[in-house]
Amino acid sequence: MFNRELAKRNKLLGIRKGKTHSAFTPVTIIMLVVLILYVASLFLLFLWALMTAFKDPLYDFRTNPWGFPKEFVWNFTYVFSQFAVPVSTAKRIGLVGMGEMYLYSFLYAGGSAFFNTLVPCITAYLCARFKYKFSRVMHTIVLVTMVIPVVGSLPAEIRMAQSLGLYDQIWGMWILKANFLGMYFLVFYNIFKVLPASYTEAAKIDGAGNMQVLLRIGLPLVRNTFFTVFLIYFIQYWNDYQTPLIYLPTYPTIANGMYSVSVTPTQEMSYVPMRIAAAILMLVPILVVFLIFQKRLLGNLTVGGIKG
Amino acid sequence: MEETSIRTELCEPEGNASPSPSGREKKASVLKGSQKDLIFYIALMAWPVLQFIVCYIWVNVSSFVMAFQEINVATGITTWTFQNFGNIILEISWANFWTMTWNSVLSWALLLVISIPLGLLFSYYIYKKMPGSIFFRAVLFLPSIVSAIVMVTMFRYFASSAMPSFFEDLFHVKIPNVLDPATGYAFWTVMFYTIWVGFGTSVLMYSNGMSGIDPELADAAHIDGATGIREFWHVTLPLVFPTLSVFLITSVANIFINQINLYSFYGGAAHSSIQTFGYYLYMAVKRADGDYGTYPRLAAFGLMLTAVAIPLTLFVRWLLEKFGPSED
Amino acid sequence: MKSTLKKMMGIALSLLLGVSTVLAAVGCKGPSLPGNYTEEVDTNRTQLYVYNYDGGFGSEWLSKVKQRYEELHANDVYEPGTGKRGIQIMMNNTKNGVTSETIKSGQDEVYFIENMYYYSLRYDGALMDITDAVSGENPYEPAKTIESKLTAEQQNFYGIKGAREDGKTQYLGVPHYFGTYGLVYNKDLFDEKGYYFLDGYDENSNLEDKFVYYDTDKKTAGPNGQYGDDDDGLPTTYQEFYWLLEYISRMNSQTALSWTGQYYTQYLGFLLNSLVADYEGLDQMMLNFTFDGTATDLGSITGGSFAEDANDLQITEENGWELKRQSGVYYALDFIENLVDTEMYHNSNAFTDSYSHLDNQQDFLMSGVDGVTTPIAMTVDGMWWQSESSQVFSSMASRYGDQYSMENRNLRWMPLPKANKEKAAEATEKIANGRNGYTVTDSLYSLCCVSSGIEDWKLPIAIDFIQFCNTDESLIEFTTTTNTVKALTYEIDETVLEQLSPYGRSLIEYIQNADIVYPYSQAELYINNSSMFRADEYYRATVNGATKNYPAQAFHVDGISAEDYFTGLATYYKSSWNTLA
User: Fold this and answer.
1) Do the Cβ atoms of C95 and C116 come closer than 8 Å?
2) Which CATH code is given to the segment(s) B93-327?
3) pLDDT tens sequence across C228-249
4) Torsional sign, CA A210, A215, A217, A219
5) A247 phi/psi in degrees, rounded to 5
6) Which residues of A are less than 8 Å from C391 in CB distance?
């Protein structure tokens, strides 16, 4: 009782508590050690990868897999020059270079991630807030589809996309991805479920319609989660080469380029240093975005730190 | 701000806002009944349902039907049969089937007892804003940013090429190739990798969930004498339970679909002693690529797994709903 | 709240767009790819779209054909009334695979692909009838049809009898190239170290006494039984091969034999299959796909060793599993087991998960040259490996000198050793009588076909182009370009051989002395389970109740013996044969 009142008072006064505890306890000390070990192991791998990217593939890496590069070789120019996907479709014939691939990646990943976050979010809201039997059905559908391994449906899926005109269209992929399935439906559902009815009822009494309640109360409530899920999907689609490879022949994404490079017939691109250099090229833009936005995108640590 | 106070309400000791069964009924009855609600509901539900019917049911129904078919590619004739279910077991052999079962359950158990608790504790550390939290959170998420294919390539070269040569050059020690199933370490190496790169999403979601916890509540717990592990157990954990329960339910599905990165490591040729259900099905479908005659028995295998997975998942949902801490 | 949301999305959007734009600007300099990739559409000409799987065999040959074809038809009119004159072959060279769906609906009209299942594509309606191209008269070569260049087995497989309304045998595709796995050796190293058997050596003598020492020492006649040619002194039997491996490894401290650790299950599986085919010969080997004929050399393990059955067995689709008891299977398994389980026989990376076939090729070419590593004498690879490695050759040539170029490097294809002396003698006798002493088997299932989605007026152009691609001139051009062969029958004479690299020449000479097994048939059992009959999948065994998919893996990981594996093969296929039928 005390807590709630305190929180309400704080809310009214606009007081935000800047931070929680920072005193070490045995648990947090152990966690710190584990985390340091974790970071060390990860950085060891990345350091090795970075060194490898600067090695001459044939005359250094082959006989020197772990040491410092004998001499630093700039593999990136060559990788960049190879980083192109030949496109041959009814819409277009020619080479697609890296810059364009970044653009397609952004459009594909951004749009798909947005709709793939929005639809489960809204559907979860409906299912959690409206206790129709159908809501339970939808919840069960999500659980069931998560465990069904689907075999050999790709041809049917391609046929469907073609007959609906979604094939080889970036917006078509947005529609394909705009489903409510997957675990994040459950995440949203669980958050909406614990929202007390009185909370929305109060708004309704004030004359707000269902849509307004959704927009003014429902969505802001899951703001953090929404961004987090969006980010997770964004990265997933950024790295996804299979869907664009099959469905977007005219619009190769950067992950396609990476795939194309890794299966390329020129042996030079199959060298480990080259492949790692290519991986770094693919990683850098998203890493930059991630580092800039990580504080915001990874949820907000300061409780109540985001103003409504 | 809203999120904070809502959570607080739910967790305050008197529990007058707790969603007990009767409470839920009450809420439902308040919302139900209104025609406007129904219209709103149908209007917004139309898209997901339509999308589901077209992009999921329509597309996947053939996979379901195929499990009961025999496709004769030579003549183009398709006949009905139940034999696919027996055939796939003959193809796999019972011995391999049990190995697969063991590996699948073991990998699930490892993820459950290592990945989830560690993820929670990492999140707790971050939530507590201990030194370096922001840095650690970003680093934990790094492996999720790097595409899996690249990450595995790096790890594989590092583990089976750079590391052995490092030890041999510097210490003249021959360390076994940990990815070679002949050495007996392969499964553990792959599991280590799977856990090692798998924190990103869960830590993100947990710490996100925890960030909704009112610090006052933790303070109150402190006054009550709950510190460290007790605070974590009694205050933090119940509050991330909505998120955690999703991961728990999903993990059950993982018994049947998780391929613990085996395809990335070994392509189609992972040794049978380390295979999981998820890997077997994925690999077999890849291998059969375009050979329609062999699809039905794989579809049958998928269906068999589904028949076990669905009740199990629903059972876990029931368990979590009945005994989960949010119902306390 | 909304504004925060919008703002954040806005920032994210603009930042990503910014990054993209910068990179796009950098990218505008234009990536240039080696070889003849894509070109702009020439609106003054008619286009024919050709998909080419750009794998180990590359795209160079098709580029040459394209050029000749375009020149030949520069003045032809295909689309009257449009003002277009001449043809443009639009090549889509890619390693991104195709599916029946993409063949049906894709832009490309003619396809050169590999590892596709012909009958599954047909079942899916992806292929166009090109009977006119195959059995019709070839305008570029009036005396010969493409059909006449196919073996009887190929005609049976590709030609579907009675499928056409006019009663003719229907063709929906023709084979493209051919590929087998085997052994490659470094001849310079062999010459330098004397890795050749001494003529008339005593089998009971010390290991080193079995090999030549002085330059004047006479080598044995080698696998073909004739003195004075390249294969003199090479191992003829499995036993000789083991001696050679030991001699290289133990006496000379060099790596005797290498293979890829990442794909050892497949590569050694394909090698095993090659050994089986070479042992069994064309007729016996084909039973594995036709299930129609008499098996003459089945056997089983009794009392721990292999014994051949007293009687022959009539093979049908019902008892096809019995073929897993062929003698050649046992001997080849034993051979592979020895290679896998004897550490001194193979390279140290033989089971390293990250050691790809390309890494192996690099090491094979560079070891001993780089001044750090010891030379590798032999390697296991597919016959097209040289074009996969072309970059290593050119890089080495520019760094170490011209003797390391692909044209000059003295590498050879090694005839597979025979299981025993009797088999070796049988082969030399055949060769002496002008017959083929070896048997090789295809493992690539390559195909040339036309999409069912092609427009009616374009089909004659596609058919014409396919006929052009399969004239003797084009086929020979393929051989001189890739140092390998197309999967059709055509004459390769001395003038052609002279244009090849030493390796290419040794390979073609070997194939010329070989019967070729095309591992497919029109048997329903085969067609409905094509993927199960691929060489790397067709040696499953049940040992101690568990299914083992790959012999080499079972030897290496599970320590199973060749005898147990051999027995396990029959057990597995006997119990699971019904699942295929």
Assistant:
1) no
2) 1.10.3720.10
3) 998 999 999 999 999 999 999 9
4) positive
5) -100, -15
6) 266-268
